[in-house]
Design goal:
alpha+beta; Heat Shock Protein 90; 5-stranded antiparallel beta sheet; 5-stranded mixed beta sheet; 12 strands
Length: 470
């Protein structure tokens, strides 16, 4: 059994969702990082504005910056303040500091425009200093002031700015992934049905059909698989038919050669015997010789059945009258033996018309009549003339019987070799008749009787000429 089971990592769901999830996550992280940077940038700009406002207010102030004043300013601005003298030594501060913490402020330059990171008592700050105007004349000894903004406020602003896009991005990823997963589950289910359908076709079940009413790519692919199954079924039947024809050629060739040799010997013996018989017996011997001659022609047609496009080697033109006379004389004793009533309805205008191969015409009609006599009590043969759609002269032959009709089991394959509903039949008569009609440039068909009664009508058309073909 053919198996197309995919490995887990080759699953369509994984192959679609994994890249999508990776791209969506990367995009969400990128947006989050950008929002973090913009949030941090906004917080720093706000700090810049607050520092500029503090600097413009305090730098030119005349009140002394004592510890109580610094505490008040710290409470109002939500910042920490550090007062330094001209040498950078600590004058006063709003938070406790040791010597190591104080040493950090010596690197501060009041004229610097950047922010300097400071860590005091385990807390992180962003520091910036400004110089007081006329600091040398102030009694408090404060030459510059450092303002410390809590770093946690900057980080909080950045987190606040990044939190919303991060939450939105992740929730969007979850919703999109769930939606795509749901869609993929439906697609995978349809693909699995299509896979099983193709596996059945691969195993030779050409009658399998997959119904998918959707008009998307999978629906069209399912309908294409159905069309492929139908075409494979037709091809399979053609291969079987070709094999049957090949086998038929091999079997019929061997049998026909033996029968033809036997009949030729019998005809020669009858002709020798005819020369020594009384004149009164000549007529009976003539009939016997004629019957043997027609049997030889039939065997010759059987020899050509298996060869594609092979024509009869003794193709001789004949008139419809000659053919019908031969057929009547041939089938009269058979009909009497089987107690079948034969009715010949031959239109007068067909008598002088010529067919390209009288032997093929006789074999085609003979096979149809013999088939009908085996299942019916009354067989009517109608022969008429007319014109085709191209206004060419045609002969129309109908063989009508009152038998049980065509078996539906073989109705679609009546003209294939070895197809028969008879227990003792070989299924060669109708293929031989069709081959003969094809050689005459005609078409053959069958149907039920037009009057609704039981029985069958076999009908074929063949080209005829008003004068003898060359």
């Amino acid at each position: 059994m053919i198996s197309f089971a995919p490995r887990h990592r080759d699953s369509l769901q994984i192959r679609v969702l994994a890249p999508l999830l990776g791209v969506a996550t990367a995009a969400a992280l990128l947006v989050t990082a950008a929002s973090w940077w913009f949030g941090q940038r906004s917080a720093l700009l706000e700090m810049e504005e607050r520092f500029a406002s503090i600097e413009s207010t305090v730098a030119r102030s005349t009140f002394p910056l004592k510890s109580t004043v610094l505490e008040s300013l710290s409470g109002l601005t939500k910042t920490q303040w550090v007062a330094l003298d001209a040498e950078g030594n600590l004058v006063s501060a709003t938070l406790p500091m040791d010597d190591q913490d104080i040493g950090q402020f010596k690197a501060l330059r009041p004229l610097d425009s950047g922010w300097y990171p400071i860590r005091c008592e385990g807390a992180r700050f962003m520091a910036r200093a400004f110089r007081r105007v006329q600091s040398g004349y102030r009694v408090d000894g404060v030459a510059s002031v450092a303002v410390l903004f809590p770093r946690s406020k900057v980080d909080a602003a950045a987190r606040q700015a990044a939190l919303f896009p991060l939450a939105t991005g992740l929730s969007t990823i979850v919703v999109v992934c769930v939606g795509i997963w749901t869609i993929l589950v439906g697609m995978i289910r349809r693909l699995n049905r299509l896979q099983k359908h193709v596996e059945r076709i691969a195993q030779g079940d050409f009658d399998a059909r997959l119904e998918d009413a959707n008009n998307d790519e999978l629906g069209r692919l399912s309908r294409a698989a159905n069309v492929m199954a139908g075409q494979l079924d037709q091809l399979w039947q053609q291969v079987h038919a070709q094999q049957g024809e090949k086998l038929l050629h091999q079997i019929s060739g061997g049998m026909a050669h033996q029968l033809r040799n036997t009949l030729t010997g019998a005809r020669m013996a009858m002709e020798l015997h005819q020369s020594s018989c009384p004149i009164g017996d000549q007529q009976d011997i003539d009939v016997a010789v004629d019957q043997i001659q027609q049997a030889e022609n039939y065997i010759q047609r059987l020899l050509s059945l298996g060869a594609a496009g092979a024509g009869a080697p003794d193709a001789k033109p004949a008139t419809i009258t000659q053919c019908i006379d031969d057929l009547r004389s041939t089938h009269r004793p058979v009909a009497q033996h089987l107690r079948v009533k034969l009715i010949w309805d031959v239109r007068p205008e067909t008598g002088d018309q010529w067919v390209s191969n009288g032997s093929s015409f006789c074999v085609a009609v003979s096979n149809l009549v013999l088939n009908a006599m085996q299942v019916a009590s009354v067989v009517e043969i109608r022969v008429s003339s007319g014109r085709s759609d191209e206004q060419a002269e045609q002969c129309r032959v109908q063989v009508i019987d009152n038998g049980p009709g065509i078996d539906p089991v073989v109705a679609d394959r009546l003209f294939e070799p070895f197809v028969t509903s008879k227990l003792e039949g070989m299924g060669l008569g109708l293929p031989l008749a069709q081959r003969c009609v094809d050689e005459l440039g005609g078409q053959i068909d069958c149907r039920g009787r037009d009057d609704g009664t039981s029985g069958t009508i076999f009908e074929f058309f063949c080209a005829v000429k008003a004068t003898k073909p060359k």
